[in-house]
Amino acid sequence: MSAAPIPWKHIRNVLVLFAPVWCGAAVVFGILGLGVALFSSDRWAARQPLVLRDEATGAVDRLGRFSSQTDLKAAQETLLEMARNPEVVAAALRDVGPVGGGTDENYPSTTLVDTVANKRVNVVAPQGSEFGNSELVYLKVEAESPERASDFCRALLGNLTSHLRTVRRIRADSVIVELTNARDLTRQKLDSVLAKMNEIEVRFGSDLSELRNLNDAISGDGANRRTMEDNAKELQLAELELERLNALQQLLIAGSQDPRQLLVSGDELLSSQPSLQRLKDGLIDAQIESSRLASVYTEQHPRRRSAITTEREITARMLEEAKAAVRAMKPTLKLAEDRVQRLKNKQDQLQEKLSRLAGVRTSYSKLDNEVEALTQQLAEAEAALGEAQASRSAALSTNLLAELGPPQVGDSPEGMSGFSVTFGSLFAGLVFGLGTVFLIAPGPQGPSAGRRWSDRLTGRRATDHMPPEIAAQVTSTPPDGVDRRRQAVR
Question: Of 48, 155, 156, 378, which residue is most buried, by most CB within 10 angstroms?
Answer without folding.
Answer: 156
